[in-house]
Design a protein that fits this description.
Blueprint (H helix, E strand, L loop, with lengths): L1 H7 L55 H7 L24 H16 L12 H11 L5 H7 L41 H5 L7 H7 L1
């Protein structure tokens, strides 16, 4: 949340305007100044949009009661439990479960009326979710979409509901369709689509 408010936070306070801060000063002993919510987009906390769960204490969240004192202008109303009931100290969430949770989050995104939404979360969730989401895409598209995110990397994606697409033959690869004619990818390009495991996955296999 600190990253989200730091990037998308509001303007500085002016002319005596009083609005709740997105983040209070020195939140969680961060040493950071308060971040205003003035003229900023709405911020929603979504439980499904979290890093891989279990075992690692750093992946356990604080109580919502505490978060509300640190981030007063963030909307936590979608989270049902005050305490973290998803994190289990001796069970690490599988990559398959992580991706399925991410897919449920994407299903939730489809219910939103906004056309542009910034999703601020951890690379593990993004990597495995997008790998599953793009499984029907052309191999080169899937490789590009699901590659590992660098720290604080900003990447733009357009989600397309294929049921809304017309019957005309597309001239592009997304979503999951190969263009006809000479634009077909070479065997070398197709062969290059080897699974690129996320860094965490590679480390666990080592």
């Amino acid at each position: 949340m600190q990253t989200a408010v730091g990037v998308f936070g509001g303007e500085s306070y002016s002319n005596g305007v009083s609005v709740p801060p997105l983040m209070v000063e020195n939140a969680a002993d961060s040493g950071r100044p308060a971040v205003s919510s003035l003229n900023c987009p709405p911020f929603l906390a979504v439980e499904a949009c979290r890093e891989r769960l279990g075992v690692h204490p750093c992946d356990k969240r604080r109580s919502i009661t505490e978060y509300r004192t640190l981030f007063p202008a963030i909307d936590f109303s979608l989270i049902e439990s005050d305490e973290d009931v998803l994190w289990i100290p001796d069970v690490r969430e599988t990559f398959e479960s992580l991706a399925e949770r991410g897919m449920k989050f994407i299903d939730w995104l489809w219910t939103r009326e906004e056309r542009e939404i910034a999703v601020v979360t951890h690379s593990g969730l993004l990597c495995h979710t997008l790998r599953m989401y793009s499984k029907e895409c052309h191999p080169t598209v899937r490789q590009e979409v699901s590659k590992y995110f660098a720290n604080c990397e900003l990447r733009s994606l357009v989600l397309v509901d294929r049921s809304m697409l017309g019957s005309d033959r597309p001239n592009y690869n997304y979503p999951g369709k190969i263009p006809a004619g000479l634009d077909l990818p070479s065997d070398d390009v197709v062969a290059a689509d080897k699974k690129q495991p996320c860094i965490e996955e590679a480390q666990e296999r080592a």
